[in-house]
Amino acid sequence: MSLAFGVSLLALAVMLGGIAAVFRHRSEGAMSALRTFALVGAASIALLHLLPEAIGEIGWLALFAAVAGFLAPAVLERVLLGDAGADRTPTTALAMGYAAVLAHQFGEGAAVASLSRVGQLSLPVVLVIAAHTVPLAMVVAIQVLEVKADTGGKRAMSAALAGIALATVVGAFATRLVDLEHLEAIEPWLLSAVAGLLLHALSHEAVASGPATSLSRAGEAMGGLLGLFLATIGIDEEEWVQKIPFALQIAALSALAGLILLRSYGPRRATERPH
Predict the structure, then answer these.
(1) Cα–Cα distance between 198 and 184 in angstroms, integer?
(2) Do 134 and 27 form a contact (C-beta atoms < 8 A)?
(3) Given 32, 96, 120, 265, which residue has the most CB atoms within 10 angstroms?
(4) pTM score, two decimals?
């Protein structure tokens, strides 16, 4: 998969986040599907593709890089926002939160470009990152629209989203400064760090739940099952998967599908949103 196409998909995800913000009251089912798709896809690709390959090359030390990739976004957010970030004025909180999003997207652009340069970039990985980008961009867009509700809200939102897309592109081209030979030498560490970055989405979405309606439940179930299906594409070529008995593979996939449906339709989602 080409880097240009991958970065274009991430930029498109930013734009879709802005559209979803404008029509947020009509896009409940679609956003539920996207959030769950990103959650399941991130976990599946990290655990079924990236980490096993990295562990096969450098052993269990790969887990240290994965942990670093998992914690980096949270640490950045704490540094930029601090413990009292939520109590600050809306404009200040928005500005600092926006800085965190820019840094986050710079890192994702760099990760995608790095994977491309070592021949590890695939459509499932880009789609999962893009699906995680849509709600992130949507949150930024909604905050801008609320802060600028009286004057030029949509223009300010467009400028903010353009900045996010630009940060992604800049992050992608920043990897050109690293020699390809050196990049290949750290490839397993890079794969582990990207796996941790994907798993970071779990800390926000694994047990998070919005209003439980029939539409949101169906969206979550559909997005989760699609994410699981997409993540399993191509893993049959991996040696570690071939060693697992076929019956056990089917049982594991069935169990994961069951967990996805339980998350969408389980007892904790039993309360419908009041009208």
Answers:
(1) 21
(2) no
(3) 32
(4) 0.64
Name the phi and psi angles at 89, rounded to 5: -60, 150
Taking 50 as the threshold, does the pLDDT of residue 270 lie above it?
A: no
Predicted confidence band of residue 161 (pLDDT cuts 50, 70, 90): very high
The answer to whether residues 199 and 46 touch, using CB atoms and an 8 Å cutoff, is yes
DSSP assignment of 19-66 equals HHHHTGGG-HHHHHHHHHHHHHHHHHHIIIIIHHHHHHHHGGGHHHHH
For residue 271, pLDDT over 50 is answered with no
Distance from the Cα of residue 142 to its chain's centroid:
19
* Residue 207: strand, helix, or coil: coil
Closest CA to 40 of 196, 262, 193, 199: 199
> How distant, in Å, are the alpha carbons of 196, 216, 239 from that of 54?
12, 36, 13
> For the segment 84-130, what is each residue's pLDDT rounded down to a tens digit?
444 444 555 566 667 767 877 887 888 888 888 877 788 888 888 88
